[in-house]
Amino acid sequence: MKILGLSGSPKKGGNTDRMVKAVLAESGAETNFLNLSRIRFDPCRGCCHLCASTNKCGVKDGLIPCLEMVREADALVLGTPFQVGMPTGFMYNFLTRLMCFHHVEIVLFNKPVILISVGIKTLELQRNEGILGFEKMVEHSQQFKSLGHIYFNSQSPPCLRCGEGKHCYNGGLWKYVLNKDEKRLREFNVSPEMIQNWEDCLPIVEEVRKYGEVLKGLKNNN
Fold first, then answer.
1. DSSP characters for 165-206?
2. Are 80 and 8 in contact (CB under 8 A)?
3. Contact status, residue 22 vs residue 52, Cβ threshold 8 Å
4. d(C-alpha 206, C-alpha 100), whole Å
5. Phi-psi category of 153—alpha, beta or left, where left has phi over 0 and alpha has psi -120 to 50?
6. Residue 91 and residue 94: Cα distance in Å, rounded?
7. Per-residue pLDDT tens for 7-54?
8. Is there a single domain that holds both residue 107 and residue 47?
């Protein structure tokens, strides 16, 4: 059994990358991992006359080997941070390129997939924005069989590195971490312990283990 893990994070080795890799490791299967931000590729160009009869993408760029790995994989683990409430452009563009598998024959129909996402909003807030959008793109558009979705609220917005946190009333730090509290903003200072790691969050650790076992179950049923 082959499982492919793909991360849409522009941050190599960040929470998204590590969560995807951890689920793969827990599966006990033969796995591959790719970070999409390290691949030079375009979004779908809509040139269906090149792929409708072959189910092979006609845009010859760095994503072609990855698309073959998607075709051959028995299951996928797809991970993305949320930026401005949406999956990253790397993940979004990748999902559009799966159109080549979606013509007379739906090549990826019911292929098992586990979703992983990281954001700075509570689960309730994120569900109505990025989470549902990500799930709809994967499950409804491509007709994968979703096995579940792990969401980690990292409470670590890019604002922690931007240098303008004390003056900004637009970013995630003000809106979602400090809850628009003027006093907390005035007193705010960045420190290393503010950077949250999923490995330190016991419920997420348990979720990662659980979905690794789910993938292991697929392997045992093959």
1. GGG-SSSHIIIIISTT-HHHHHH----GGGS--GGG-HHHHH
2. yes
3. no
4. 36
5. beta
6. 5
7. 999 999 999 999 999 999 999 999 999 999 999 999 999 999 999 999
8. yes
Same domain, 187 and 217: no
Angle between helices 15-27 and 202-221 (to 10 degrees): 40
At position 80, the amino acid (one-letter code) is T
- Do 203 and 173 belong together in one domain? no
pTM: predicted TM-score of the whole model, two decimal places: 0.91
For residue 119, how many other CB atoms are within 10 A of its CB? 25
Residues of the chain below pLDDT 50: none
Residues 58 and 152 in one domain: yes
Q: Which amino acid is at 196?
A: Q
Tell me, yes or no, whether 162 and 152 share the same domain: no
* CATH at 84: 3.40.50.360
pLDDT the model gives residue 121: 87
**Cβ atoms < 10 Å from Cβ of 134:** 25
Helix (H) or strand (E) holding 6: strand 2-7
Q: Are residues 82 and 34 in the same domain?
A: yes
Asked if 61 and 90 sit in the same domain, the reply is: yes
- Do residues 54 and 115 share a domain? yes
Q: Which helix (H) or strand (E) holds 212?
A: helix 202-221
pLDDT of residue 222: 62
Q: Which domain holds residue 190?
A: 157-195
